[in-house]
């Protein structure tokens, strides 16, 4: 039996039923970021890749999926900036990209540095998304 909590911001259950955080998570959209070369020297690869976004699933596990496409302009620096934006601002759940290898490698290094920061924050108990 679910009972409203005293703060009025969710439910808790004596029998281990669904809690407010799980219910809220089930309603959240899954965000997937794509960093593609839509302009610049690799646009001939990035544009067709971008066109395939329409074929990707609109729902996963019963949750709606949002795709955020950013152009790296076939530039490594721009690919890293786009990756940082997807992680920090858009708070995506996954990233796909880039269209070319140098940009993909730079994005991986950027993510690894961010993961190291996440691991350190986890040690001190801070969540980079909430700041708590």
Describe the structure.
By secondary structure, the chain is an alpha/beta fold. It has one domain (29-124): Rossmann fold, CATH 3.40.50.2300. Helix content is 41%, strand content 21%. The protein is built from 4 helices and 6 strands. The chain has helices at 20-27, 43-51, 76-88, 101-124, and strands at 2-4, 11-13, 30-36, 59-60, 63-71, 94-97. It has a 4-stranded mixed sheet with strand order 4-5-3-6. Strands 1-2 form a two-stranded antiparallel sheet. Strand 1 (2-4) and strand 2 (11-13) form a beta hairpin. It is flat. 22% of the residues are buried.
Q: What is the topological layout?
A:
Layout: E1 2-4, E2 11-13, H1 20-27, E3 30-36, H2 43-51, E4 59-60, E5 63-71, H3 76-88, E6 94-97, H4 101-124
Helix pairs in contact: 3-4
Q: What kind of assembly state do the chains in view correspond to?
A: single chain
- Main beta sheet: strand number and arrangement? 4 strands, mixed
Give me the CATH architecture, please: 3-Layer(aba) Sandwich
Total discrete domains:
1
By DSSP, the count of extended strands is 6
Short précis:
The protein is an alpha/beta fold. The chain has a single domain (29-124), classed as 3-Layer(aba) Sandwich (Rossmann fold), CATH 3.40.50.
């Amino acid at each position: 039996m679910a009972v409203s909590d005293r703060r009025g911001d969710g439910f808790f259950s004596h029998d281990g039923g669904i809690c407010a955080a799980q219910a809220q998570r089930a309603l959240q959209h899954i965000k997937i970021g794509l960093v593609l070369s839509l302009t610049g020297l690799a646009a001939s690869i990035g544009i067709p890749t971008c066109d395939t976004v329409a074929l990707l699933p609109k729902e996963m596990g019963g949750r709606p999926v949002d795709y955020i496409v950013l152009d790296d302009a076939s530039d490594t620096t721009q690919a890293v900036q786009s990756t940082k934006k997807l992680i920090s601002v858009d708070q995506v759940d996954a990233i796909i990209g880039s269209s070319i290898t140098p940009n993909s490698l730079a994005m991986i290094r950027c993510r690894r540095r961010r993961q190291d920061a996440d691991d350190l924050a986890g040690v001190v108990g801070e969540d980079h998304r909430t700041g708590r």
